[in-house]
Each structure stands twice: as structure tokens, then as C-alpha cells.
Amino acid sequence: MPLVDLTCSATLPALAAAAGGGRSAREAAVDSERALERFLAGIERRAYRIAQLALRDHAEAQDAVQDAMIRLVRNYAGHPPEQWRPLFYRILRNRITDSQRRRKVRNAVMAWWAAGVTEDEASDPLVSAVDPGGGPDAVLEGEELLARIEQALAGLSSRQREAFLLRNFEGMDVAQTAVAMGCSEGSVKTHYFRALQALQEVLGEWKR
Amino acid sequence: METMNERMRELERRSREAFDSSVEALPAATRRHLARARAEALAGLRRGRPQWSAGWIPAGAAAAAALVGVMLWQGARQGELPEEPSLTAFEDLDLVAGAEELDMFEEDGEFYAWAAEQASGDAG
After folding, report:
1. Largest separation between any pair of C-alpha atoms in chain B
2. b/e for A74-103, b at 16 or more Cβ within 10 A?
3. How many angstroms away from the CA of A24 is the closest CA of chain B?
4. Distance CA A133, CA A129 (A)
């Protein structure tokens, strides 16, 4: 379905007007807000974990998801609900890239001024990789497995990693992933296949 | 004997299960934070705040990106840059090359072009 009017700023009156029909504007607006609430509630935890896997930082992942929510609501609330998920992940992807860029800039500036002296306070990816806390054996096994996968994902190119996270973890189809990644469906298939190949190679006999 | 395709399907399945379990096991504090973020986003909808200026580019962003690009290039040559766990050297340069996205996250021009093309195709 085509995406239109991308620059619109959604407000309740706008949503109400879009909903139209015989209902009152207020009822339509409330319905739209509830639909958005359901959408965000259904997506936020998975989006956070995906952001955490990409950024390997708990706080940055939370901020990225929050910003993506705000931006989706602000600019795309008036779009058909079936477009929200790829749009949301498109925004989140850009936000993650932005965070990586900021991190890179920080590191570059520090390296510039400190003449190559690196800071030990940089976040430890091993600490932030897996959520702490106990749980049943099955969950611990899953976390351990996910930690290994996360490590393997870090070795992929960003495009391969995005394709794997969106396709396999978020369960998006090729067309939705293409919108989220801003590339063709063919590219999504290529990146995803290469990601699987690379992970298989790195993880080796992990499954036993 | 297991084929490569079967091994990949197994990798997909097992990794997805592990991911789903980790989502279910998110700490309560994280879940609360996300719920608050959602509420704040929706509150913004009710307030109908004005949109950010989509075309605004921070002054000096391009110059800053160019400077950082030089830093990265020189650092990479001298082996001084701290390593990022998930980015290659090419991606480093790619990341700082986009000055328009240095200070804010906007959907890129390619996306808008694609969307406009879709819209015009739909209209015509």
C-alpha cells in the first residue's frame, strides 16, 4: 500500500477528520488513539530488545524506542494502521543509526583530543548484552543462547544485522522489511540470506 | 544428513525462540519505562504539538561531520581509534558522511523519494 502525505503532523482533530463517518469527531479520535495505544503496547518490548541487540546498550535502546514512539505518533498516526509497523521500524532503524553515529563521533573526538588514550568507562557490551535476573532453566538457556547469537550478530554488517533482526526476530515479511530498511526487497533477501550463512558459520555446532 | 537449508531453518527457529523468551523475561523496570514512554508519546498526540522542522539542519553539522571524518581517517591510519563492537571501518565513514542526520533522525531522502513515487503511482 502506498505511503502518502509523509510530512503530515497528526493531531486528534486530524485523526478524527480522517476517520470521518457518522460518528462524532471525538469518538473517532478516541478510537484512533486506542488503536495507536494497542499498536505501541504490542510492539514496544520486542522493539526494545531489537534496539538493545543493535546498540548493545540498555539506556540507549530505551531512548531509541521512546523517540521512535514519539515520532511515529507525531508524524504518522494518521496513516493506515497496517503501515505503522514498517514505519515504526524505519524510524527506529534511523534512530539506532543516529545513536551509533553519535557514539562514533564521541569516540573520534576523544581520540582526537586524548591522542589515542581510550576511556575505560565505555560501556561494557558483555554487561549490557543480557538482562540480569533469574528464571527457569529454559529461560536461562535461551538467554545464554541469545548472548551467543548477539555476539555473532555483532560481526555482521549493519544491513545484514538489520535484515536478520527484522525478518527473524520481529517476524516482518520481505516487503515490510524493505520499507523499514529503505531498500529493495531483493536487497532484503540477499542481506538476510548472507546473515543466516554468516551466523551459521560463526555459531557452528551451537545447536547441539 | 541435514542439508544447509535445514540447518538454517533450525537456526532461525532456535534463535527466534531465544529472542521471544528474552522479551518475556524483560525486567519489570524496563517494562514500566516502556509503558511510560508510550503514555508520553500518546500525550503528545493529544496536545497536538507542532511538528519539528523537517528540513532543519543544525548549523555547522556538515563542517563537524567533515572534521570527524578527518579524525576517523587519521585515527584509522594510526590505529588509535577505539574499536566499536559492531561496526566496520567502512560503516564508520558511512555513518559520519551523512551530515544531514548528525543531530536528528529523519527518514532519509531515498525513503521520501520512494514514498513520493508510490504516492504518484497510486494517483496516476
Report:
1. 61
2. bbbbbbeeebbbbbbbbbbbbbbbbbbbeb
3. 17
4. 13
Judge whether A157 and A128 are in contact, CB under 8 Å. no
pLDDT, tens digit, 9 for 90 and up, residues B46-105: 776 444 444 444 545 556 556 656 655 555 555 444 444 344 444 444 444 443 343 333
CATH 1.10.10.10 domain range(s) in chain A: 130-208
Residue with cell 535476573: A133
Cβ of A196 within 8 Å of Cβ of B11? The answer is yes
A161 and A195 in contact (C-beta within 8 Å)? yes
Partners of residue B95 in chain A, C-beta under 8 Å:
97, 100-101, 104
Query: Do residue B11 and residue A98 have CB atoms under 8 angstroms apart?
Result: no
For chain B, give every domain's residue range: 1-43, 63-124
ipTM of the complex model: 0.73
CATH no. of A130-208: 1.10.10.10
Residue numbers in A near B108 (CB within 8 A)? 94, 182
Which residues of chain B are within 8 Å of residue A72 when distances are taken between CB atoms? 41
pTM over 0.80: no
Please answer yes or no on whether B81 and A4 come within 8 Å at the CB atom.
Answer: no
